[in-house]
Amino acid sequence: MKEQIGAIEKDALAQITAAINERSLDDARVAVLGKKGSLTLVAVGIKDVPKEDKAAVGQLLNAARAVISAALDVKQTALREIADRAALAGMDPTLPARALPPGALHPLTQIRDQAISILRRMGFALADGPEIEDEFHCFDALNTPADHPARNEKDTFYFDSGKLLRTHTSSVQIRSMEAQAPPIRIIAPGSAYRRDEIDATHLSVFNQLEGLAVGADISLPDLKGTLEYFFRELFGTTTEVRFRPHFFPFTEPSFEIDVKLQIKGQAPRWIEVAGCGMVDPAVFDAINKSRKDHAYDPENTTGFAFGMGLDRLAMIRWGIRDIRLLIENDVRFLRQFA
After folding, report:
1. What pTM did the predictor assign?
2. Are 224 and 278 in contact (CB under 8 A)?
3. Tens digit of pLDDT for each residue in 60-77?
């Protein structure tokens, strides 16, 4: 068997030396070290070797395998170097590289980052929360009654467990107040989900940014001044902003905010961009019950909240007529923002 192992090693090294490419080298490897390779079959037969010779034969077998494996590695490295040189033959490495088209942030990312930057300068901190929510944080704590349309399964994505995909990032406001006593000043950008039919102005998932400021002596003028400054920073210092009375369960009084849109060649028109209001005392009562204290005493605590769709702001900012363009990843559309 010793002579057989020596012959196999010699033959294997000859095949490896003769290999002209990685395919023939792999054939040589399989012929010797494969499942049915010559050296593998010899190793199987070691059980028939006399006991006193097994150790010596085993050492010889291991040595042959090591020599053959090392030769395979060396030859493979050499063949790859030859292939690399052949691939580079005739190429001038001093030629300038092919120009790459410039990239850019997605328009939604651009508008989100700018909105966050403006509000951070005004003292708002970033806050985050889960996208899979429970009804308390999404509805109950926000003074939304059980028969409110938003709680209907036709409008909201519910799971069998009773949890749901949040319909707004207002739930982050609730979680922030549960975790921190006033004063508090946060913004919550993130995804929200509703069972809307997808068309030119609606998606079933959209990007929202909500804000909350709670403390002592926070008033309606604070809310108005904050949002007027924000929209003038976002759309230009000459932007006209107006507040219209509205109703939201979680704020009282409540308003919708419009800005006057001026597009070249078109008559100016008012367009809705956000909702806002002073935090309803019922929301503070729900927070106190959840916290099991009176940190948000409605007699001594006031605050304002606001919310806006970032998709809508992007459409206004760049005159995008179809919201679906923001999710289709069409390079022809996105190239405009590079």
Report:
1. 0.69
2. no
3. 778 888 888 898 899 899
